[in-house]
Amino acid sequence: MLLVDDDPASLRVATVAVATAGGEVVAALAPSAAGVDRRADVVVIDVPHPRALALVERFVAAGVTVVATSGAGSVGLAVEAMRRGAVDFVLKPFTPETFARRLAPRFAERPAARDALPRPVADADTSPSGFGGFVGGSEAMKAVYDQIARIAPSKAPVFVTGESGAGKELCAEALHARSPRARGPFVALNCGAIPRELMESEIFGHVRGAFTGATEDRAGAAEAAAGGTLFLDEIGEMELALQAKLLRFLQTGEFRRVGDTRARRADIRIVCATHRDPFAEVAAGRFRQDLFYRLHVLPIRLPPLRERGEDVIRLAESFLARFAAEEGRAFARFAPDVLERFRAYGWPGNVRELQNVVRRSVVLDDGETVTLDMLPPELAAPRGASAPFAATEAAIEPFHVQERRIIESAIAAFGGNLARAAAALEISPSTIYRKRERWIADGDAA
Ligand SMILES: Nc1ncnc2c1ncn2[C@@H]1O[C@H](COP(=O)(O)OP(=O)(O)OP(=O)(O)O)[C@@H](O)[C@H]1O
């Protein structure tokens, strides 16, 4: 495998991922140094902007399998890369594990890589500690693994529910990896992070002139996912009018790009997810009942982390081993009182929050043991002591200070993802953007 990326840190992560997936890196280069090289079977090319797509085309023309990556989270770029022949598009930042999972199908025919392929379905019942990309062997999660294994081979839509950070996207990836479509694309779209007026075009594409700024024809996520899986995260954020179009697509297999008269077809499997209660959304009229019953064919409920017993410890230990290796730190264990706090804490941000707590200690501190003082305040202090409503007059802080702390801790809990933080706080993402801009303007950048 050949790696082409400007960023040395990304090259390091990708190198670990290739090895994890059972491959071998023949060279890791900056784009300026990368001529078309046929020594590699597969090339991973970073595409920071549309101009970089020319390199994708050159490798594709030379018969090399191309996987595109980018930190620019535009579906348009992903679609364009695939239109030019890339077999997959992976959004940065990625961890070695998540990237390895996406690369594994590329080694499917190579005997040396067999171990890196998704395990046979039968493992779902027997593995004590995990499944696919999941860590955890609690009874609640074993039931989920079992469901994924049974549901994966079907083409019917899957409806995943669960709190933010509980692993809904991981679940969609596991379904894809174990389906007959595993070698096709996996395209993830977060409906909560896309402005409403652009959502239809992101899903179904548009033709030139369809709206201001539509300067050329563009395929959408449905076309990019053809032959594979389309993951629609936060489906509850979709407008009713677009829900009707999605329903029609599910009923007929046909859709139209925005502004187009021509109907197109795409063979995709839809996995959708929401952190809301879908039945309540239907009852409140925010989610079309007919669409809900079309999508709710195969439901999976991911339990919140606080319902998974000792999984919280298994996950914490696996994150500690991973982040310590990535950051070159000596951390090897948690102090007993830290483990107690982990067990007692409610984990409103679920696995993502735990991941961030562990990463934070590894990055900010040093030593072999993670101790209580290395944890963020909401965990380090006994429950209630860090509540935002102080009990004594002297301890009361101005509202804007408390508000900022709440928003920043939510953003941290969601790994810097403003849209997800906003959804969890039940405020609009633009409110967070506006407030952040004000903090920056006040010379106090977050
Ligand atoms: N059981 C697990 N084992 C290992 N990692 C996990 C597990 N569950 C979740 N993760 C990791 O936690 C992070 C959050 O998971 P994911 O993005 O799948 O959650 P989500 O439910 O889709 O969140 P949101 O609702 O905010 O979109 C990811 O980095 C994922 O890889």
TrEMBL record:
SUPFAM superfamilies: CheY-like (SSF52172), Homeodomain-like (SSF46689), P-loop containing nucleoside triphosphate hydrolases (SSF52540). Transmembrane segments: none annotated. Residues 134-363 form the Sigma-54 factor interaction domain. Keywords: Activator, ATP-binding, DNA-binding, Nucleotide-binding, Phosphoprotein, Transcription, Transcription regulation, Two-component regulatory system. PROSITE patterns: RESPONSE_REGULATORY, SIGMA54_INTERACT_2, SIGMA54_INTERACT_3, SIGMA54_INTERACT_4. It comes from the Bacteria. InterPro entries: AAA+_ATPase, AAA_lid_NorR, CheY-like_superfamily, Homeodomain-like_sf, HTH_Fis, P-loop_NTPase, Sig_transdc_resp-reg_receiver, Sigma_54_int. The modification 4-aspartylphosphate is found at D46. Residues 1-107 form the Response regulatory domain. Pfam families: AAA_lid_14, HTH_8, Sigma54_activat. This is Sigma-54-dependent transcriptional regulator.
